[in-house]
Amino acid sequence: MTHSRRHWMMTMGLGMAGLLAAERAPVSAQPLNNARAMVSPRDAIKITRLEIIPVHSLRTIFVKMHTDAGIIGIGEGTVEGRISTVMAAIKELEPYLVGKDPRQPAHHWQAIYRHAFYRGDIVLTSALSAVDIAMWDIKGKALGTPVYDLLGGPSRDRIRVYGQAESVEEAKKVLAEGYTSLKTSVSRSRGRLSRYSENPDFIQGFVEKVEAIRNLVGPKVDLGIEMHADHQPQVAMVIIKAMEKLQPWWFEEPIQHQNLPLMAEMAKKTHIPFATGERMVSKYQFRELLQAGAASILQPDITHCGGITELKAIATLGDAYYAAMMPHAREGIVGAVASMHVCAAIPNFLAHELPSLQAAVGRPDVQRSYLGKSYIKKPLTMTEGHVVLAGNFDGPGLGIELDNNLIDNERGVPEWEFPEMWDSFDGSVRDH
Asked: Is 328 marked active-site?
């Protein structure tokens, strides 16, 4: 009995010493940063309302999630060209969210997704993306720590980003900006879109374009090829074989993702990896992609796929298949930064896209940049083709704030729409 009591006291003493040591551990090792936390972890927080901000110049929607604690989380979700549809879907989530604690994003993700009954729809998951990102932002701000710390801590100190160039002149600018990687597209050749089967001259047009860019950037620069699923499988395979000699970084969206077994068949016929996933949502669709062996580079978009919660799940699933993550991020800077937080915390990251400005029309007086100028108060900076965590998004939550003039900057900018694509021979519809 005496021995048992002494053993129990010793065990308790060691346990208390461990707790005290944990409390004295450096703040950087703790999920709670007392110096920057906006509330105590024990304080109640409730969502009070959603503020929905359409950002037409970036084809997307920003969200401000307000709470009774005064903490405002920001998020982003979109189906570009269908802004009003997604805005309505986000508004439909508000009755569920109001009164809930935003520090339980994983729980609320499950409730919103599974209670919807109809699943796998990009409108639902895009609306879910917006509120999920905002909840993670609130959680990080409440604890005074970056989102990537809440996801397990950083596994790297910088995020590699790549540029895009459609000509030799554009490629020169991309290199001058400091990028060490880029991509170019093969959608139109000789001034037209492709047909179900193509002639050598049409294929040669693509080869000449990409070869000229490769000769400029040299063999040490990673050069990806964006196919955007614009070609029928038989033409896509001919283009792929013609490009192999240029050693592309990857082929993006070689065909539409609806036929994963066919994409897998094509992937086996080339040594260049396939990348796809920007139009796919949720871990369930990516599971099917990976099981089929259709691609080894995954491109989920955090503003489509279900937010931070789901992007992290997709990355974990991909890691089990030795697949790399190269997130799509063509819309807004809020989603891009949220995505970078996930990429900072995962092992299987390759590179990251930056938002496009292709739809930034209507306000020539507003200066914009791929790194967030006119959208966030402190735009990101790029260092040797990377966005370094420190000084860019290492603050609490997402570590960024929306520009105070955002709504005024967006006033009068029309909603962007996908261009119609027709066959120049007979007027039939072509893929986009």
From this structure: yes
